Amino acid sequence: MKAFFFPTVLAMCCPAVHAQQAVAPAAQKPAEIIDDPSTRIILDVTRVNMLFTVTDKKGRFVTDLGKDDFQVFENKMPQTIAEFTAETDLPLRLGILIDTSNSIRERFKFEQEAAISFINGVVHQGHDKAMVVSFDTSAELVADLIDDTGKLESAIHSLRPGGGTALFDAIYFACRDKLSKDQPRHKFRRAIVIVSDGDDNQSQVTRDQALEMAQKADVVIYAISTNVIRGETDGDKILKYLTSETGGQTFFPFKVEDLEQSFENIANELRHQYNVFYRPEPLKADGLYHTVDLRVKGRKDLVVRCRKGYYAPKL
Q1: Which of 24, 159, 205, 286 is most buried, by CB atoms within 10 Å?
Q2: Strand-by-strand arrangement of the 92-99 sheet
Q3: Rounded Cα distance, 98 and 104, in Å
Q4: Number of helices followed by number of strands (H, E) in the chain
Q5: How are beta strands 220-225 and 250-251 bridged, if at all?
C-alpha cells in the first residue's frame, strides 16, 4: 500500500529506502519544510558549476565552442570563467518519475516501453545509476539508484496506473533524498525525466518548493507530456516552467509512437553538454537565490539552455 509523502520526515541521514517501499507518512502533522541540519544540501559557494547545452535555432547541437566563446553574468555582474570542459562522459545520476495516475491510463503501456528503451540506452553499468519513482496519490520509490538495467526494467514493468497525481512530492523526494547524495557535485550529471500530464492534485509540497529543491540539488528536469489534447494545458505550463528554470526541456509527443523519440532526444542532450566553473564576484554566502545568465558571445543564432541560478549557502 502506498503512503502519502510528507517532507517533514524525509531526512537525508536516514537509511536507504528499499525498492517497492513507499515514502513514510508523518503522524498527524501538516506538510512543512523544516530547516533540519541533517537535511541540508551544502553548496560550495566559492565554486559555481553550470552544466549546459548549446543548439542552433533548429535544435541541432553545437559542440565546437571553447571557453572564450562564453560569457557568464551573476545578478547581472560579469564573471570570470575559471574552468571550461566539453562533457560527454560524466557519470549520470538519473531519476525516472512516472505518473501512474488514472489520467495517463490510455498511454501507459507505451510509456513503460519507451522508458525502458531509454534506460537501456543511457545507463552504463559501473558508471551511471538510475532510479524509478512512481507517483499517483503519493510518491513511491520503486527502484533505488542502481546501475542494473534489468532490475530497472522490471521495476517499470511492475507499475500499474490508478489514483491522483503527486508530481511535486515526487520531484522533492527524488532531489533531496536521492539525487543530491553523490559528491563532489560537479563530478556527476543529475537529471530527472518526468512522464506526466503535469496536473498535480495530491502533493503536500508546492510547485515552487519542488523547484527549489531541484535547484539546490543541481538537478536538470526534463519532461515528456502525456497530454493528448492539441493545445497547451495548465499541466503543460507547469512542466515547461519546471524544465526551463532548471535548464531542461519539455517534449510534446502527440502520438504514442513519438514517445520513444522524445526519450531519445533527452538521451542525446545528456551526451552533448558543456560545463563551466566560476568563482562568484562579489562573493555572497547569503542563503539567497542568485540569477545566472550564460551567453555565447556575439551569436544570437545560438540557444543556450542551462539553469537560471543557484541557491547560495548561508554561512
Answers
A1: 205
A2: 21-22, 139-146, 129-135, 92-99, 189-196, 220-225, 250-251
A3: 10
A4: 6, 15
A5: parallel
Residues comprising the chain, all counted: 315
The pair phi, psi for residue 285, each rounded to 5°, is -95, 70
Residue 34: CB atoms within 10 A of its CB come to: 10
Instruction: Characterize the bridge pairing of strands 273-278 and 81-87.
Output: antiparallel
- CATH number for region 89-270: 3.40.50.410
> What span, in angstroms and rounded, lies between the C-alpha atoms of 10 and 30?
14
Kindly state the cell numbers that stand for 165: 497525481
CA angle 180, 296, 292 (to 5 degrees): 40
Q: Give every CB contact of residue 103 below 8 A, 6+ residues apart in sequence.
A: 165, 197, 199, 226
Q: What residues does CATH 3.40.50.410 cover in the chain?
A: 89-270
Q: Measured between alpha carbons, how far is 136 from 144 in angstroms, rounded to an integer?
A: 18
Q: What is the pLDDT along the chain (315 residues), one digit of tens a residue?
A: 344 344 433 333 333 333 344 553 333 333 344 444 444 444 455 789 999 999 999 999 999 999 999 999 999 999 999 999 998 788 999 999 999 998 788 789 889 999 999 999 999 999 999 999 999 999 999 999 999 999 999 999 999 998 899 999 999 999 999 999 888 878 899 999 999 999 999 999 999 999 999 999 999 999 999 887 778 899 999 999 999 999 999 999 988 788 999 999 999 999 899 999 999 999 998 989 999 999 999 999 999 999 999 999 887
- Ordered DSSP codes for 57-85: TTS-B-----GGGEEEEETTEEE-EEEEE
Contacts of 64 (CB under 8 A, 6+ apart): none
